[in-house]
Amino acid sequence: MPLVPESPDPRFVLARDNIRIATYEFGDPNGRPVVLVHGFASAGLLNWHHSGWTRVLSRAGFRVIAIDQRGHGASSKPHSPDAYTMPLLVDDLLDVLDTFLLDETLFVGYSLGARVGWQACLDLPGRITHAVLGGIPDGDPLTRFRVDEARACLETGNAPTDKLTAAYVKMASGIRGNDLGALISLVEGMRGGAQPDPANPPQQPVLFATGTEDAILEKSRTLSEFAPKGTFYEIPGRNHFNAPTSKDFRNAALEFLGTC
Q: Which helix H or strand E contains 128, and what residues bound it?
């Protein structure tokens, strides 16, 4: 038996600016749809399939669609910061929904994917009925990321001196298929854009989930408290990077989605 579940080939959706968005479908084609959106420097299969989410949701009868966000996985990886804004990431999601003829869907996102989910809940209230937002902070989590040091690392191979930048560069570089230049452009392009704002929360039912060892735990909890239909789940013993692999997180999400 393989240690990693067999992965399907991607099906591509052409976004409105001609970016190709890779999608992966699992489960009952007639089941209730749930769209899965991964975090920064990850990918649809890595975040959701290899960690067991697609299996669990498929067994529960859902139609599961995971996507690679632009700059990630098998999707197009432009190197211009202009290709990466929150409106474009939400438009990519909308283009996927339209292509799959999904009038309504459930949503699960983690980290960057959760930030996209927050904004999509605001912009597409009739399309996203319920959402699970994992590892979501308020504000911009990468304001301390040193784009200049990261680009210098790309050119010279010298590790950044800033610890946060070095950690993200090491993490992103360690995942096969990642394009570090595209990911740096994503960070640069999304700075100063729309961020989760407690004063303007989603009105849909939302499950917020963050690891007990994650530094953003209390900020995530605060966002949930301002959401009128928000609930909060602490993922036991997990930090920001390993929370998606948590069985407890999967079970909490499945329970929430199963009661929608």
A: strand 128-134
